[in-house]
Design brief:
Elements (H helix, E strand, L loop, with lengths): L2 E3 L5 H5 L5 H11 L4 E5 L8 H13 L3 E7 L9 H21 L3 E4 L10 H21 L2 E3 L10 H11 L6 E4 L4 H6 L3 E6 L1 H6 L1 H10 L6 E3 L7 H17 L1
Parallel strand pairs: 1-8, 2-3, 3-4, 4-5, 6-7, 7-8
Length: 246
């Protein structure tokens, strides 16, 4: 069963200094009995080769597949050119990290807080994704944005990017919303985030929708409350596993 837990699910414990990426990997393997990890880069304090080698060793020792590397502060568009370049360099560092860790997919957002892209923004975003997708193709993984903030929340914007990039190594990290956008973006889904809200409200329908379109990736449990995370993640994970088992 291809289920993962996004390490962001433990951001409350991380903020208190009560977990790190190694504790997270230990939890995936021995607390939740999974064969995959799903790392948010907020849990990666460095991307140098020495540190990445330690994380890769921890993955291998626990026989964990890295389903996704989820990257913040690397989104493609920023109005300020210097910040845009800074994000680009961070994206390159994390593409290297994805390759070093053997990630199946990596999420790098498009950016833009407004509900639509300008022509300049759209062209820049598409050009960068084509660059990233070719690199991903050459190294055996997939890359793309997540529909979870700014212009990316609007399905039509995401569909426009998907069609313009038009590359087999490009995909969408589908953050379930329980609306028509889920169905429209399903053909490009490379990974998923299943929130507590979806787990409570329309889990079976959301999973069924993607399964019916042939999705064969990982189902990523993402918890957000920052409270009682070990127990609440266990509940959320069990509900997802139960639906998948039916």
């Amino acid at each position: 069963m291809k289920v993962s837990i996004v390490s962001y699910s433990f951001h409350g414990l991380l903020a208190k200094g009560q977990i790190d990426v190694f504790g997270y990997l230990e939890s995936c393997k021995y607390r939740y009995h999974l064969d995959s990890a799903d790392i948010w880069n907020g849990m990666l304090p460095a991307t140098d080769d020495d540190y990445l080698q330690k994380v890769k060793q921890a993955l291998d020792e626990r026989e964990l597949v890295l389903a996704n590397l989820c990257v913040d502060s690397a989104h493609i568009w920023e109005d300020d050119a210097d910040l845009r370049e800074k994000n680009y360099q961070n994206a390159l560092a994390h593409l290297h990290a994805a390759e070093a860790l053997g990630a199946r997919t990596i999420r790098i957002d498009a950016g833009v807080q407004a509900p639509t892209f300008s022509g300049e923004q759209f062209d820049w975003i598409v050009r960068r994704y084509k660059e990233f997708a070719q690199r991903a193709h050459d190294n055996g993984y997939r890359v793309g944005p997540e529909n979870h903030w700014g212009a990316e929340v609007v399905p039509e914007n995401m569909l426009s990017i998907c069609r313009a990039v038009d590359h087999p190594a490009f995909g969408v990290l589908l953050h379930y919303r329980g609306n028509h956008g889920d169905a429209e973006m399903a053909p490009w889904a490379m990974h998923t985030h299943i929130s507590w809200d979806i787990t409570e409200q329309c889990l079976a329908e959301s999973i069924g929708l993607l399964r019916n379109q042939g999705y064969d990736g990982y189902w990523g449990v993402e918890h957000h409350s920052a409270e009682y995370e070990y127990a609440r993640v266990a509940i959320q994970l069990a509900r997802v596993q139960a639906v998948l088992a039916q």
